[in-house]
Amino acid sequence: MMKIFADERRDLIMTYLSKHKRATVNQLSEHANVTPATIRSDLTALQALNKVERTHGGVRLPRADSLNTDNSFSDRLNKHQTAKQRIGMKALAKISNHQCILMDASSTTYELAKLLAKTDMNLTIITNGLENAILLKENTNLTVLIIGGFAQKGSNALTGRLDSQILNLYHIDYFFVSANGVTLQNGLTDFSLTEVELKKEMIKQSTEVIALIDKSKFNISSSLSFANLFEIDEIITDENITPELSKQIPTKVTIVK
Asked: Distance between CA atoms of 169 and 171, rounded to whole angstroms?
């Protein structure tokens, strides 16, 4: 039997729960092919991250009214805002007239959207961010398309893959994406299965993928991976990363001050 690591087991747990909504310890033990004691340890770790709710003999996904509101889009907008603004300005400098830009629904790309809302460039912008689209549609120089499916409380994202085939119709020059965390082992990670699935599709359809990552995201791993570092063409961040990490990251890193 091949051994799987804790983060891989927890991905299995979250994927199972995304499909079934709830499970017993024994069901998860059988699904991951590990002991019930190991599953209980994983569930304790996931509960500490507010990813799951423990029940008698098992676990379920958190109810909408019990989710950690500190992770809502409005709260994330106010965290590390100065760094995100600098990162957004650096990202804007890469964009040229008449390009097609793809943006995720993160609070960091929202800072880029605020700059694009004032641009004189003629651009096509595709996003699954509700707030991004609301902001950008007021600029008559911009053609704005929105993709996704389901709107969730506390989130800027439309999630799911409804209408994601629209990505096949456009030549996408840049995909600007952020993440809940970045590690060497797991790459770019997030916590919403449906949003992660859409981000994977966005990466496949983009000529160049640029990750906008402030310093608070490094060495943090969320429950679901959507890209390894080999799939990222450039990381724009706000602080020098450690020499050890720099040697191992297989992509260009741009530091903004």
From this structure: 7
